[in-house]
Amino acid sequence: xxxxxxxxxxxxxxxxxxxxxxxxxxxxxxxxxxxxxxxxxxxxxxxxxxxxxxxxxxxxxxxxxxxxxxxxxxxxxxxxxxxxxxxxxxxxxxxxxxxxxxxxxxxxxxxxxxxxxxxxxxxxxxxxxxxxxxxxxxxxxxxxxxxxxxxxxxx
Length: 155
Ligand code: HEM
Hints:
- The protein is built from 7 helices and 4 strands; from the N terminus they run H-H-H-H-H-E-E-E-E-H-H.
- The chain is mainly α.
- The protein folds into 2 domains: 2-41, no CATH class; 62-154, no CATH class.
- Helix content is 43%, strand content 6%.
- The radius of gyration is 19 Å and the shape is flat.
- The protein has helices spanning 2-8, 14-20, 28-41, 44-58, 67-78, 110-114, 148-154; strands at residues 87-88, 93-95, 98-100, 105-106.
- Helix 4 (44-58) crosses helix 5.
- Bound molecules: protoporphyrin IX containing FE.
- The site of protoporphyrin IX containing FE has 21 residues, from helix 3, helix 4 and helix 7.
């Protein structure tokens, strides 16, 4: 396996840095899951946001200064990560007109929230000057996207 190989032969690059950092002393499983989240979650997502945005601009979406405003509505509109990982209910309670029982698995549909007409005026329209724009395309709470600043910068 590549991880075993890099353990024996340190080299430049993120994987080798993670493997050989004495502060963390990560197991192979931890390295593998970190590599997955950093390379796949950090790459595919931004790739889709950029390609969707380029497509929208090529179809005539206005892209004026400040471009950061437009990027937020591309994020909201396309929501390249459609939903969260599974979440588990900690305490039984009523929400959304139903009872959520302790231990139930819940997946939040981020794209649905980002197209909620109660929250966003003309929610089904792409508005590159939309302000305010409190979308949750990068998730929310303690597991909000670690790479959101990098993703915005790259886009
Ligand atoms: C447009 C690009 C991106 C989008 C739309 C996006 C979206 C998300 C979303 C929705 C979550 C939360 C998922 C959940 O609650 O289950 C998340 C988590 C995460 N993202 Fe991103 N992401 C993007 C780019 C990146 C980049 C560039 C990196 C790293 C280089 C990254 C690293 C992570 C990590 C490590 C988590 C897990 C955080 C945790 O569980 O504590 N993401 N991302």
